[in-house]
Specification:
- The structure is a homodimer.
- Chain A is α/β, with parallel strands linked by helices.
- Chain A has two domains: about 1-265, TIM Barrel (Alpha-Beta Barrel), CATH 3.20.20; about 270-355, no CATH class.
- In chain A, about 45% of the residues lie in helices and about 20% in strands.
- Chain A is built from 15 helices and 16 strands.
- In chain A, the strands form four sheets. An eight-stranded parallel sheet of chain A has the order 4-14-13-12-11-10-6-5.
- The interface of A and B includes residues 43, 72, 294 and 295 of A.
């Protein structure tokens, strides 16, 4: 993996990540494809929307259909028909948020599947094994992501364990020649404790990862704490490596993070909202079910060039939503993903042209 | 509307129906788009599968979103982004099968909406009004479709009322200059009573419809009775007009109906089965959830050229189905609709080349 910064404006930067499966222009938004599909979309639609990378989930794919199965079917790219880069979350976050925890030790985590209750034992080594089987372009280290709120002691223990596990991930990956071309990112924990965040990062820096992510944000803490964390961490993360703020997708938060020097983002917000009928437009967020759209012949967003906006009216999309038609979820998702990716493209252009402050100012005024 | 028979082989025929919105090659299968969408598919996918006409539902669109709304948004074609022919069922069947009936008289039917329980009064005139508002290419007359089983007296009354209503539909449509280019088909009722079927047809023939449909089949009666009805009616329906067997979609039944001289078919079978994971292939029907497909890298059907078969493995499709992903319903539906339409294209080619018996014989041996 290669990361090149093409333009810098204070902390704000635009760059390119090159992987075996293609380039990613940063700042980049990664649509979430948990179960080897970005919900409601096929790979062609993702490409049409301009997606350059998607995120998929180690935890989910390990449980179903199983990473060995995906390996046997040629890896995740081939399995899902997506030939561009894939970043895989390590499962750390999901083990704590979705599964029923059984036992937690320095060795790993025993948990029960959220699908069928079966018992599993996840270790840093297994997390790397799974991501190698999937053939991911960017692996994430297996981390301990404590819930919010957590005591200082809990967070401190998680920071230590995350460092220990990051090292084991690094060692494990070294022994996998087939995964050589994939990158491995470390994840900084530390909750809302500034000193623990610094401690967590320091531990990871020694291990020299190809990219650094900030995890344990947007886990329930007040927005102010999240902003504090991103403003703190942005400048501390190595400038020459991609900086990834995990799970953040509110567009104003993304702009603030870009301001702080972050490069990569992922969030289910555009896809989940689409399925619930909440649409992002250049004028703000709208709910497609509103009565005022009943006979509205205009597209979701007059400024949008997505397939949905080129072909269908708000009146039709409202009807599909109220009729709970599958096509509703797809057309709304096409639009929201296109809107998000277009937002990031325009943000990048603004950075390249030295007018990120105007860009941010224009979009800060919109109600999301 | 123009109907031309291009090839005849005994009772079997291949032809072309020309409408304002394009041509339909017969024998034709019409995918069902109840709520102004063929479930899980967009208009582009229908075209890619080769659909030349779809069926939509007067009853459903009248209740939601309302025919006036669709009229105001430019008609059904524009509303749903489909610029090829549309046939609209009259609502007769749905009023009896879906709604809660309140009162039935020669004037019309009072019923309660299956959506919100609201009370409505459907008449032949309203059914035509709705279809005109939708801008359908082929209107169906409003009929009384008695349930199965029904007494001879009930069926006889339905036959008489269907004739009365057919005439009122015809008269109503005459007074609508904007609907002039649309065709109107009459519907033969009469249940399993041969003499009542004959009586029903005779009444309709006097009114000279542009096409004739056989309704009240596949409403719960034994298959043998349905076959008897189609074998009886095929030769009796006017040879120069399209003959439409309503709601039939079992492929062997379709072949038998083509043998009896029918030209048009509709059924939810390919779409509904797709959503339930039941797939039609040249080798027969398969359930995608079967364990044997777990690591199967092959497409649903090696002989199929649909988008799904060109891009995805059985292993992936099984995973999507078990994960209840929306993409599962879409990819399965793309395949099943493509399979059905390809089946009909090949059947038509066989007729054109004088080898329908071989075609039928080959497919009769497959387990559906």
């Amino acid at each position: 993996m290669n990361f090149t910064i093409i333009k810098k404006d204070g902390a704000v930067r635009a760059g390119t990540i090159e992987t075996e499966n293609g380039s990613i222009h940063t700042p980049a938004f990664m649509p979430v494809g948990t179960n080897a599909t970005v919900k409601a979309l096929g790979p062609d639609e993702l490409k049409q929307a301009g997606a350059e990378i998607i995120l998929s989930n180690t935890y989910h794919l390990y449980l179903r259909p199983g990473h060995e199965l995906i390996r046997n079917l040629g890896g995740l790219h081939r399995f899902m028909g997506w030939n561009r880069p894939v970043l895989t979350d390590s499962g750390g976050f999901q083990v704590y948020s979705l599964a029923r925890l059984r036992k937690l030790s320095d060795e790993g985590v025993e948990f029960q599947s959220h699908i069928d209750g079966s018992t599993h034992f996840m270790t840093p080594e297994l997390a790397i094994d799974i991501q190698a089987a999937l053939g991911s372009d960017i692996f994430m280290a297996f981390d301990e992501c404590p819930p919010w709120p957590a005591t200082r002691e809990e967070v401190q223990r998680a920071v230590k364990r995350t460092a220990l596990w990051a090292l084991r991930c690094k060692e494990k990956k070294k022994c996998m020649p087939l995964a050589e071309k994939s990158a491995l990112f470390g994840i900084v924990q530390g909750g809302s404790y500034e000193d623990l965040r610094r401690e967590s990062l320091e531990g990871l820096l020694e291990m020299d990862f190809e990219g650094y992510a900030v995890g344990g944000v947007s886990v329930g803490e007040p927005k102010e704490e999240m902003w504090k964390t991103m403003d703190l961490m942005g400048p501390l993360l190595p400038a020459s490596k991609p900086r990834y703020l995990m799970g953040i997708g509110d567009l104003k938060d993304c702009m603030q993070a870009v301001q702080a020097g972050f490069d990569m983002f992922d969030c289910v917000m555009p896809t989940r909202n689409a399925r619930n009928g909440t649409i992002f437009t250049s004028g703000g967020r709208i709910s497609i079910k509103r009565t005022e759209f009943k006979e509205d012949p205009s597209p979701l967003d007059a400024n949008c060039e997505c397939y949905t906006c080129r072909n269908f009216s708000r009146g039709y999309l409202r009807h599909l939503f109220l009729s709970r038609e599958i096509l509703s979820m797809r057309l709304n998702t096409i639009h929201n993903i296109h809107f998000y990716l277009e937002f990031f493209r325009q943000m990048r252009t603004a950075i390249m042209e030295g007018r990120f402050p105007e860009f941010r100012n224009r979009w800060e005024r919109v109600e999301w």
